[in-house]
Design a protein that fits this description.
The complex is a heterodimer.
Chain A lengths: L1 H25 L1 H25 L23 E2 L17 E8 L5 H12 L5 E7 L6 H10 L2 E6 L4 H5 L12 H14 L8 E5 L5 E2 L1 H7 L5 E3 L2 E2 L6 E6 L5 E5 L15 E4 H6 L15 H6 L8 E3 L1 H4 L4 E2 L24
Parallel strand pairs in A: 2-3, 2-5, 3-4, 7-12
Antiparallel strand pairs in A: 1-4, 5-11, 6-13, 7-11, 8-9, 9-10
Chain B lengths: L4 H23 L6 H22 L16 E8 L5 H12 L5 E7 L6 H10 L3 E5 L21 H14 L6 E5 L5 E2 L1 H7 L5 E3 L2 E2 L6 E7 L2 E6 L15 E4 H6 L14 H6 L9 E2 L1 H4 L4 E2 L9 H8 L11
Parallel strand pairs in B: 1-2, 1-4, 2-3, 6-11
Antiparallel strand pairs in B: 4-10, 5-12, 6-10, 7-8, 8-9
Classes of the chains: A alpha/beta, B alpha/beta.
Catalytic activity (chain A): 3-O-(beta-D-galactosyl-(1->3)-beta-D-galactosyl-(1->4)-beta-D-xylosyl)-L-seryl-[protein] + UDP-alpha-D-glucuronate = 3-O-(beta-D-GlcA-(1->3)-beta-D-Gal-(1->3)-beta-D-Gal-(1->4)-beta-D-Xyl)-L-seryl-[protein] + UDP + H(+)
Pfam family, one (chain A): Glyco_transf_43
Enzyme class (chain A): transferase
Chain lengths: 344, 321
């Protein structure tokens, strides 16, 4: 009888612990851990599948793609990430909208490919690619779809009159202006001023080089943030002059340092909120002297003392204004030596 | 009922029994913790990424999940100091960081490893080996020499071959690819080359004065080469257009690049000792797709910088560019 009572006591003591164990199994964190293990397995298999397919468009993408049916006029937007490579979209991080004007030339696919390889590392990045062409080209469309980034594909052709130069001084032709303005226009159409999203806008040309650190520096911009840029203005780098108090007080450039904003296109980022607040601010096309294109936008948005210096008070170089050589296609000859159907 | 210990125990056990029954019932139902779960997951990943960025050096790069059975791709990059060096290596590292089972062998043309490259490699997150060997003075380019006068990067690539032969085991699987720091590589290229058994080849864009150069393929074998420049070469390929299986390199310890090779014959000097053209393995859709481009970066105009340096007012040399 004593033994049975002991047994009963042991069982009744063990019961609460069993209860605790079952509840612990349901607790979100541990559930998340087991799901995570399952998820990484799934990711590995999906990667293997995608690598095994042919060069043609891969099928079998996850079904959570919301696509607008594309006509000629409406831009194509993919709102959720479609591939395992970019970091998953976070609802808490501000979004970085990168506006890249591009135009058809031999190195275009190469430039956009390596730019995409860079952006695939950045979380919550939305790439707005604006082609200088009458129609969206297949080359860029296919590249954007296969890359796996969240993107918007727009196009606007620069009229020939602008390409040749409005004024008779050739250096004053603004390049990429219409395209960047279209990018800004799309942002203002897509988001309302009453409920602006958390994020920044960055103008990234397709031939520059960007470090991954740069995107984290610009992510939390409140108005307009600035930082040094390498290989511009004939210098190793140009940078804003920052006072010990951490405010921008001037510009360390040789070329016209008295410009209101003596900074390169790659040297600043603007918060979305500010873009939506000031809907008339855009890059000016006419009457813009060489080196003043950035000023034509920024002067309507902010003054110098409102600028936020990044990159350790503008002492680190995180972006390089590299330019790619134009390839000499001398052996192509008049009729083209290589098969024109092969995309390069 | 009097407060006896026995009663307390009975109440305690009854309550816990009831609770256990409730929990058992709940187990059968779908749990509505999905939102909480997503929030947890997001917070976890935000924290992870924040740590990665703040920490600088990454331990295990994200790209390397589950890659034990994969042959390692050894990417050999010769590099030399010039203004755009850091920019080139940074953007190359951003591409390589996506590729699983990759080992980057960077060989500097320098007498000693530089802090710039060492720091960059450490922060890149790519598994790497940092070597250096200086090009001998007679092969070095003097100011005024055209760039094609001496073959470039030869000693550096040979140094990498020596490292591979010294440190890799004879049976180890792997693929060796010579990637210059100014070219552009798509991610698919690395998966194409991974299955190399001997020497594999594919088209290269924007090289040899053409939109692309490529091997000609018939019946799955290489039968010729489509090139507009010196097509009489035994292997009219660019350095970026082929990869060599590691076992083959280890089996032929004398195969290396010839520093005295004539212009355009550098690739042939290595490949001639390894395979014959008929044995080349065509990749990239039987050599119909361009997955690598021979881009070149302009030399930046630093006129104002040089002017300032002459006046003694050059930019802060402590700021690394």
């Amino acid at each position: 009888m004593l033994r049975r009572r002991n047994l009963l006591t042991t069982i009744l003591i063990a019961l609460p612990w069993a209860l605790l164990l079952t509840l612990w199994h349901q607790y979100p964190t541990t559930h998340y851990l087991s799901l995570l293990r399952k998820e990484t397995d799934e990711n590995v298999t999906s990667k293997a599948f995608l690598n095994g397919t042919s060069a043609l468009r891969e099928g079998g993408l996850p079904s959570c793609i919301r696509q607008q049916q594309s006509t000629g006029a409406t831009p194509r937007v993919i709102q959720s990430y479609v591939y395992s490579r970019p970091p998953p979209w976070s609802d808490t991080l501000p979004t970085i909208f990168v506006i890249t004007p591009t135009y058809t030339r031999p190195v275009q696919k190469a430039e956009l490919t390596r730019l995409a390889n860079t952006f695939l590392h950045v979380q919550n990045l939305h790439w707005v690619v604006v082609e200088d062409s009458p129609r969206r080209t297949n080359l860029v469309s296919n590249l954007l779809e296969k890359a796996g980034l969240n993107f918007t594909h727009l196009n606007v052709e620069t009229p020939k009159s602008l390409k040749l130069g409005l004024s008779w001084i050739p250096s004053h032709t603004p390049r990429g202006t219409l395209q960047r303005n279209l990018g800004l226009h799309w942002l203002r159409d897509s988001f309302s001023n009453t409920a602006p999203p958390e994020g920044v806008v960055y103008f990234a040309d397709d031939d520059n080089t960007y470090s991954l650190e740069l995107f984290e520096e610009m992510r939390y911009t409140r108005r307009v943030s600035v930082w040094p840029v390498a290989f511009v203005g004939g210098l190793r780098y140009e940078s804003p002059k920052v006072s010990p108090a951490g405010k921008v007080v001037g510009w360390k450039t040789v070329f016209d340092p008295n410009r209101p904003f003596a900074i390169d296109m790659a040297g600043f980022a603007i918060s979305i909120k500010l873009i939506l607040e000031k809907p008339q601010a855009s890059f000016k096309l006419e009457g813009v002297k060489g080196g003043y294109q950035e000023t034509s936008l920024l002067k309507d948005l902010v003054t110098m003392d409102g600028l936020e210096p990044k990159a350790a008070n503008c002492t680190k170089v995180l972006v390089w204004h590299t330019r790619t050589e134009r390839p000499t296609l001398v052996n192509e000859g008049k009729r083209g030596f290589t098969d024109p159907r092969v995309e390069v | 009922m009097r407060v006896k210990l026995k009663n307390v125990f009975i109440v305690y056990f009854v309550v816990s029994l009831v609770g256990l029954l409730c929990a058992l019932l709940q187990l059968g139902q779908p749990c509505d913790c999905s939102q909480q779960l997503q929030a947890e997951r997001r917070r976890g990943r935000d924290r992870l990424l924040a740590e990665q960025w703040n920490g600088g050096v990454r331990g295990e790069p994200r790209a390397q999940g589950g890659g034990q059975a994969l042959p390692t791709i050894y990417v050999v990059t010769p590099t030399y100091a010039r203004p755009v060096q850091k920019a080139e290596l940074v953007r190359l590292s951003q591409t390589l960081l996506h590729v699983r089972a990759l080992h980057w062998v960077v060989v500097e043309d320098a007498a000693a490893p530089t802090a710039l490259v060492a720091g960059l490699l450490a922060n890149s997150g790519v598994p790497f080996t940092h070597l250096h060997v200086e090009t001998p003075p007679e092969s070095r380019r003097r100011p005024g020499d055209p760039p094609w006068l001496h073959p470039r990067g030869v000693e550096q690539r040979n140094r990498a071959l020596r490292w591979l032969r010294d440190t890799r085991a004879p049976g180890e699987s792997g693929v060796v690819y010579f990637a210059d720091d100014d070219n552009t590589y798509s991610l698919r290229l690395f998966e194409e080359m991974r299955s190399t058994r001997g020497v594999s080849v594919w088209p290269v864009g924007l090289v040899g004065g053409l939109r692309f150069e490529r091997p000609l393929v018939a019946g799955g074998r290489v039968v010729g080469f489509h090139t507009g420049w010196k097509p009489e070469r035994p292997f009219p390929l660019d350095m970026a257009g082929f990869a060599v299986a590691l076992p083959l390199l280890l089996a032929r310890p004398e195969a290396r690049f010839d520093p005295r090779a004539e212009r355009g014959y550098l690739e042939s000097s290595l490949l001639g000792a390894l395979v014959s053209p008929a044995q080349l393995e065509p990749k990239a859709g039987n050599c119909t797709q361009v997955l690598v481009w021979h881009t070149r970066t302009e030399k930046p105009k630093l006129r104002q910088e040089e002017q300032l340096q002459r006046e003694g007012r050059g930019s802060d040399p402590h700021i690394e560019v």
